[in-house]
Specification:
The complex is a heterodimer.
Chain A (H helix, E strand, L loop, with lengths): L2 H28 L1 H21 L4 H26 L5 H31 L6 H21 L2 H20 L4 H29 L1
Helix pairs in contact in A: 2-3, 2-7, 4-5, 5-6, 5-7, 6-7
Chain B lengths: L10 H4 L1 H13 L1 E3 H8 L3 H13 L3 E8 L2 E8 L1 H20 L4 H4 L1
Antiparallel strand pairs in B: 1-3, 2-3
Classes of the chains: A mainly alpha, B alpha+beta.
């Protein structure tokens, strides 16, 4: 055995590690387009409902919780269909990646919402702003790792949320409906088209 | 004669392009032909040759279908391929651990 063999072995291990990491990141991207569309529809129904159907804050919480449940279920079904036939390790990797990323951010969102609710002097309209800032931050971070479309979506969402909070707070539901609902659907659609193009090359 | 350390390495996997194919398949289970071509920067012919060799050894499975009248080739790692690749990595690790670090690198 000599030094060259050791170097070659180390080089091969490095190559394997790089390719495995890159592939796993790419694979997480595959189902992201449809998931973005689901959450875009969730935002449109949610904010329109809040603006026109749900006048009281107590009902507002139930409305969002119920809708979130449906969206989470739809996300799970999409992920399952995209992962059918894959190994258990692979499914575990994707699910933990997804949960590990969004769960801390969702907790942060709830903490900010709780803060808004504990201070009566703060308008309840800031609840949506707080949550949307957190979600936009999530998309910006994901965008740097997975797809630039997500980064742009996050940036637009973040700036849009700040502008809405400062200048158009009373119209926040309608603005977020357009900004996040349509924004997520368009981002998801772009990602699906890109994916299909790559497959058909 | 002194035995070459890499003599136990699976020669089918050891070649760079095939090592790339197997690494991607280990991570993804199943991928499209075009995905492999793009990631590994190989030509259609070159990739096809490597895939045929891996398939002949039972390390991968190739599934050819038509979607919207366009041919689509999916490549999947087999159970035997998974085991062979794990064995290959163990062998690499053995080589790395058995060759001592030179004194100059230790400092």
């Amino acid at each position: 055995m000599n030094e060259d063999e050791k170097n070659e072995a180390m080089e091969n291990i490095r190559l394997i590690k790089d390719l495995v990491m890159k592939t796993k990141t790419e694979m997480v991207k595959v189902s992201s387009g449809w998931i973005a569309i689901v959450w875009g529809i969730f935002c449109i129904i949610g904010f329109l409902g809040q603006q026109f159907l749900i006048p009281q804050n107590a009902w507002s919480a139930a409305w969002w919780t119920g809708l979130s449940g449906i969206a989470v279920f739809a996300t799970f079904r999409i992920s399952r269909s995209q992962m059918s036939g894959r190994s258990r390790e692979w499914i575990r990797f994707v699910i933990w990646k997804f949960i590990g990323f969004w769960l801390p951010l969702v907790f942060l969102g709830y903490a900010l919402v709780a803060f808004c609710l504990l201070h009566p002097e703060v308008s309840p309209d800031y609840i949506s702003v707080a949550f949307m800032l957190v979600i936009s931050t999530g998309y910006m971070i994901l965008g740097t790792m997975v797809d630039r479309v997500m980064l742009y979506m996050g940036l637009v969402g973040f700036i849009g949320s700040l502008v809405t909070a400062i200048f158009f707070l009373s119209l926040s539901s309608l603005i977020f409906c357009v900004l996040f609902g349509i924004g997520l659907i368009v981002s998801g659609w772009v990602m699906i088209v890109k994916e299909k193009k790559a497959e058909g090359q | 004669m002194k035995e070459h350390a890499s003599v136990k390495l699976n020669k089918m996997i050891h070649q760079k392009a095939r090592l790339g194919i197997m690494s991607i398949l280990m991570a993804a289970d199943e991928v499209d032909f075009n995905y492999l071509k793009e990631q590994l920067q190989l030509t259609d012919g070159n990739l096809s040759t490597h895939l045929s060799q891996l398939e002949a050894q039972g390390l991968i499975e190739i599934n050819k279908t038509f979607i919207d009248k366009k041919p689509r080739t999916r490549v999947r790692i087999s159970e035997r391929g998974r085991e062979a690749f794990s064995e290959y990595i163990r062998e690499l690790e053995r080589i790395i651990s058995e060759i001592p670090v030179p004194k100059s690198e230790k400092q």
